[in-house]
Amino acid sequence: MSAAVAYRALFRARFRTLLRYRAAALAGVGTQLFWGLIKIMVLEAFYRESRTAQPMSYAEIVTYTWLGQAMLLMLPFSANPDPEVREGMRSGAVAYELARPLDLYNLWYVRALAARSAPTLLRAVPQFILAGLFFGLKAPASFGSGAAWLLATLGALLLVSAFSVLITITLLWTVSGDGIARLAPSLALLGSGMVLPLPLFPAWTQPMLNFLPFRDMADAPFRLYMGSLPPGDVAGIVTHQLLWTVALLLLGRAVLARGVRRLVVQGG
């Protein structure tokens, strides 16, 4: 069996396993609707009291918020270390993964892709339906905007998975990984627009936000969906996503190689 076939089989198996958690996904839909409504009410109060022109209309803010809620589990909020890898580090079972005839980084990356995509699919579909019917989520601005959003979302999936694996690799240096797993996703959430839409940030922050990879994880795909960025911008956005994905992949491989060299597995 070639390595590519093995990785595809691993992805499919992991993806199917995660699709079984339908009750948890249904509960998550209710939770995300609740918090989405709270966020919209806060932003509505801000818009009602504001006397200056805002870079986004209130309708765009509502759509932006619901897109964030629908895609929540793909985004850095859920970039905690892989729980099975964490348990393997604690128990010593990581030695079995090191013994497999597969590249360890590729193995963890494929698992991250499945972990980002399957739960998101389970929750996003009902979120789009309910928010579109009852809570103000608008359809894509055009067919081109919808296609550009899908393409940029795929790029975001690759980028977030690389970011997630980098967080998982830190388990080679820590017992639980909780410290970095709390700090790094919080930074990514702020920089991706999940806390506050990035167009509402001060003008002096925009060049820095445009350079960092976090905008590509949420803000850029969402604005393509709404039409505030034209579909023609998707090529530049995807290029930026792929460049940062490659950079995180190379960094992750370098950190993993260093961590594996110093890894000590206790026990027989």
The outline comes out as globular
Number of DSSP E strands: 0
Percent in helix = over 70%
SSE run: HHHHHHHHHHH
Computed over alpha carbons, the radius of gyration is: 20 Å
Tally of separate domains: 1
Distinct helical segment count: 11
Task: Give the rounded overall mean pLDDT.
Answer: 86
* Strand content range: under 5%
SSE class: mainly alpha
Largest sheet: none
Low-confidence stretches: none
User: End-to-end distance, in Å?
Assistant: 30 Å
Q: Mind explaining what this structure looks like?
A:
This protein has 268 residues and is mostly helical. 70% of the residues lie in helices and 0% in strands. The protein is built from eleven helices and no strands. Helix 2 packs across helix 6 and helix 3 packs across helix 6 (104-134). The relative contact order is 0.14.
Brief synopsis:
The protein has one domain. The chain is built from eleven helices and no strands. It is an all-alpha fold and 268 residues long.
Set down the secondary structure blueprint:
Blueprint (H helix, E strand, L loop, with lengths): L2 H16 L3 H28 L8 H13 L12 H9 L2 H6 L4 H31 L8 H27 L8 H15 L13 H6 L7 H8 L7 H29 L6
Helix pairs in contact: 1-6, 2-3, 2-6, 3-6, 3-10, 6-7, 7-10, 7-11
